[in-house]
Amino acid sequence: MPAPLDTAERFAAYAHPERLVSTAWLAEHLGEPGLVVVESDEDVLLYETGHIPGAVKVDWHVDLNHPVTRDYVDGEAFAALMGSRGISRDTTIVVYGDKNNWWAAYALWVFSLFGHEDVRLLDGGRAAWEAEGREYTTEAPTPAPADYPVVERDDSVLRAYRDDVLAFLGGQLVDVRSPEEYTGARTTAPAYPEEGALRAGHIPGAQSVPWARAVAEDGRFKPRAELEAVYQGEKGFSPEAATIAYCRIGERSSHTWFVLHHLLGFDDVKNYDGSWTEWGSAVRVPIVTGAEPGAVPAR
Amino acid sequence: MTEHLMTSAPGAGDAPSPGEGLPPALAEIVEEFDAVPERDRLQLLLEFSRSLPALPERYAAHPELLEPVPECQSPVFLVTEVADAADDPERTVHLHFSAPPEAPTTRGFASILREGLDGLPAQTIVDLPDDVCSRLGLDQVVSRLRMRGMLGMLGRIKRQVGESLAA
Question: Is A190 exposed, middle or buried (CB count within 10 Å of its CB: 0-12, 13-18, 19+)?
């Protein structure tokens, strides 16, 4: 049975308020049967320094990425992962993490590729929980293993591959990286490691909306009207048109995918997880430099 | 620091010791990691992250003296001090790091390097083998991508110390 929804008023205007919970809601429902809290961070040790009581850890790199191929784990590995964390197919999952929920949103997106139905984000993530002085523990939970069915991942709805993006040029593309990466001044986010893109710039026609423009100062999502002003107003995106988001390796664009799909109700949003580390190294794909989206090459 | 010291099992066959060819303090750390199962290595790294000393006042007040390490995903800075040849023919090296508490992995890497390398002669640091970081056996539990941060720190330490020797 799914956990009750957070009916907080500030979520009500979003297209899918059932995808968010507040820190207060989570504190109230912690430990209830049918609810599992998952922490997913950029730093692989942060969970060990203290986490929300009862929360289990899922690491984007060690647990969700395929150990050899550049891909996500398969249905069997996913079932084993979820089962070991005490998660069943009908469990309500609340994900939270560091860095404004980048990796939490990424985990939520991967869970969604496997069709896990009830997966929600803790608005504000670790930062909000901490700012309110809420409880952390270093005690590792020992969840009773659950039976999670082997479900084949469906990449067709939420995930875009490079060839999909090539065929999509001219469509609603959103580049959520920093302005320096978009213009081609650099291939990685400021203060981030080099991850192997050979060329700098952006995909032709992509609009630049750095992911953080969706986040308020306290780390929570901005209200719907403010989000609309950015994506629909300033960039002229239409919620009815298909949209693809990308960044460097697909984590920041998972955050924007969540905003467009779940908060603004864009029907068809895909995350191109190959993102710049693939596009910026692929042979003969078109690239534009500079601050403008640029012309889309004729096909 | 000896509180998480563990002795490795004696007579464990003919496999070469992972600490072989390393300076004693670093060899001890590498063997400590080798002696525990993979899962527990994360916990050990966490212990190291907690023991990273704060920056001395002379650097805390002057962050511009430290070198950033962009290979790490977190804001980490380091500085090396190499003794003058006139005072100390061995040119003893001291290391200082700054990394925020919300980046425990990075702090752990810094703490290992500090404990393993601080107080060594400069030439010993320059001559360190390049596979030091992978000998910790953290590739699977931390991921190779993240281990690049530690490689970045070590590379900068070796470069700074090498520059001091050449100056």
Answer: exposed
Rounded-to-integer distance, Cα B102 and Cα A188, Å: 21
Tokens of A228: 């609309």
The per-residue pLDDT for range A223-242, each reduced to its tens digit, is 999 999 999 999 999 999 99
- Take residue A248 and report the two structure tokens written for it: 């460097």
> Domain B24-166's class?
alpha beta
Helix (H) or strand (E) holding B79: strand B77-82
pLDDT bucket at B12, cuts 50 / 70 / 90: very low
Dist. CA B100–CA B103, nearest whole Å? 6
Distance from the Cα of B142 to chain A's closest Cα (Å) equals 6
To probe the interface with A, which of B43, B107, B142 has the most A CB atoms within 10 Å?
Answer: B142
Average pLDDT, chain A: 94
User: What is the share, in percent, of chain A residues with pLDDT greater than 90?
Assistant: 89
- CB contact under 8 Å between B102 and A194, yes or no, is no
Find, in chain A, the residue whose alpha carbon is nearest to that of B69.
A191
Is the separation of the CB atoms in B133 and B151 below 8 Å? yes
| Rama region for B88: left / alpha / beta (φ>0; ψ in -120 to 50; rest) | beta
Q: What tens digit of pLDDT does each residue of B141-164 get?
A: 998 888 888 998 999 999 999 999
Question: pLDDT at residue B14 above 50?
Answer: yes
- How many angstroms away from the CA of B10 is the closest CA of chain A? 31
User: Which entry of A247, A249, A264, A269 is annotated as an active-site residue?
Assistant: A247
Half-sphere exposure of B87 toward its Cβ, with a 13 Å CA cutoff?
6
Contact pairs from chain A to chain B, CB under 8 Å: 57
Q: Which of A39, A41, A43 to mutate to test the interface with B (most CBs of B within 10 A)?
A: A43
Give per-residue pLDDT as tens, A254-276. Answer: 999 999 999 999 999 999 999 99
Asked whether the beta carbons of residue B71 and residue A48 sit closer than 8 angstroms, the reply is no
**Ranges of each domain in chain B:** 24-166
